[in-house]
From TrEMBL:
It comes from Cupriavidus numazuensis. The keyword Transcription does not apply. This is Uncharacterized protein. The chain crosses the membrane at residues 99-119, 125-146, 167-189, 299-324, 336-357, 391-410. Keywords: Cell membrane, Membrane, Transmembrane, Transmembrane helix. Belongs to the polysaccharide synthase family. PANTHER family: LIPOPOLYSACCHARIDE BIOSYNTHESIS PROTEIN WZXC, PST FAMILY PREDICTED COLANIC ACID TRANSPORTER.
Length: 416
């Protein structure tokens, strides 16, 4: 974990500039590469069922965090003025209390979740996962100020250290026989280090005191982020809940691995670029010269061509890829992976569209697109599930994503 920080520090000052997209690229190569190593090696060692057990715990965390998303970090990045010290204190108070409440709720619901998802003896694992929201809430809000200022070099150092700790600890625990716990323990180690580094490396540091006022002006923007998070909760976790509840942890593990692998190979590129583009679009939008729209249009056209080629390539090599990376126990996930390749390619384009719409002050458009996707799912999921099972659910998700992307593109062009 310290090695990643030393690499960042050893690079010449000012090259590339701290706000350069090269730092986002370096961060994603390191972070996503380490995440890939973690999931592929741990998945190969433990098999689908253990991965599915850990997946249920992380699914519960994702649901709780989405329902309680304040939208405040995004509001800080998009706002016209940088937050004052007293506003940072209020942000830290709000985010820490949110993390503590979410953690307590998850801990209380652990026995219920274990019963619902057929996880015999996994209550301690769910309790352990409940600490993740609190650790994330304790991080310094200076992280969002640095994001606003496009300090990508510092952010890359923090995120790379987090990923190094997560990967190293998870693999060590898996080799020691910790089973599904190894995934959660690694995440806890990474999030703890990240929270510490946000206070040690990033500024300005907020005064460490509880404050309950001073951020009301962020709420107008953030409420649409919250609304989008609630809708996206249904969109992103509904399929996993269905598979886990109806088919058990082994099938959930296969479903999640195929989705995760497709995401790492396709969608993560768009997500990585959106981390750079959100503050970049926001800065260009403040100039009111139309450069934000021109940049977004060029990137979308280029991305569509590259992703189409990538999807065709991955579909043709899916079976040998799974045999090479994960072994024969995972071969049943190949048809799902082919569907998720299309799904994640559309998701990569959506990440760019969301970054643009939020940066120009239209978070509502992304929420509207999510509602359209929900409507599509309500119509298509029941018959698709009845006739095609898990693959039917995956195709329904893909059709919904395509409709959502079309709506966001329409809103983007109409604004022009």
């Amino acid at each position: 974990m310290s090695k990643a920080l030393k690499i960042m520090a050893a690079l010449p000052r000012g090259w590339p500039p701290a706000h350069s997209a090269a730092w986002v690229l370096l961060q994603q190569v390191l972070v996503r590469g380490l995440v890939a190593v973690k999931f592929l090696l741990v998945g190969r060692m433990l098999g689908p069922e253990a991965l599915g057990v850990a997946g249920v715990a992380l699914l519960a965390v994702a649901i709780a965090e989405s329902l309680s998303d304040t939208g405040l970090p995004q509001a800080v990045v998009q706002g016209g003025q940088a937050p004052a010290p007293h506003e940072l204190s209020a942000l830290w108070t709000a985010l820490t209390c949110r993390g503590a409440l979410v953690g307590l709720l998850l801990a209380a619901l652990a026995p219920f979740l274990a019963a619902q998802f057929h996880l015999d003896g996994a209550v301690p694992l769910l309790w352990m996962a409940a600490a993740l929201p609190l650790l994330r809430g304790l991080a310094s809000p200076a992280y969002y100020v640095v994001t606003r200022a496009r300090g990508f070099q510092q952010l890359a150092g923090v995120e790379a250290a987090n990923a190094c700790a997560d990967c190293a600890v998870s693999l060590a625990c898996a080799l020691a026989g910790a089973g599904a716990y190894s995934i959660i323990i690694g995440l806890l180690a990474g999030e703890t280090l990240k929270s510490v580094l946000t206070w040690a490396m990033l500024g300005p540091r907020p005064p460490l005191r509880l404050r309950w006022s001073g951020i009301g002006h962020y709420l107008g923007f953030s409420r649409w982020i919250w609304a989008g998070s609630v809708v996206n909760l249904l969109l992103n976790q509904f399929d996993k809940v269905m598979v886990g509840k109806l088919l058990g942890p082994a099938q959930l593990g296969a479903y999640q691995m195929s989705s995760k692998l497709a995401q790492m190979l396709l969608a993560d590129a768009g997500i990585a670029l959106s981390q750079y583009l959100f503050p970049t679009f926001a800065e260009r939008h403040r100039q009111q010269d139309g450069s934000a729209l021109r940049l977004a249009s060029r990137l979308l056209m280029l991305g569509a061509v590259l992703l189409a080629v990538a999807v065709a390539t991955l579909a043709s090599v899916a079976e040998p890829l799974f045999l090479l990376l994960l072994g024969p126990r995972w071969i049943d996930a190949v048809p799902l992976f082919r569907v998720f390749a299309v799904n994640m390619a559309i998701g990569a384009l959506i990440a760019l569209l969301v970054a643009y719409l939020r940066a120009v002050g239209l978070p509502r458009a992304a929420t509207e697109a999510s509602l359209i996707q929900v409507a599509v799912l309500l119509v298509t999921v029941p018959p698709a599930t009845q006739h095609y099972g898990a693959i039917g659910i995956a195709w329904s998700m893909t059709v919904g994503l395509a409709c959502a992307a079309s709506w966001m593109l329409f809103r983007m062009l109409r604004r022009a």
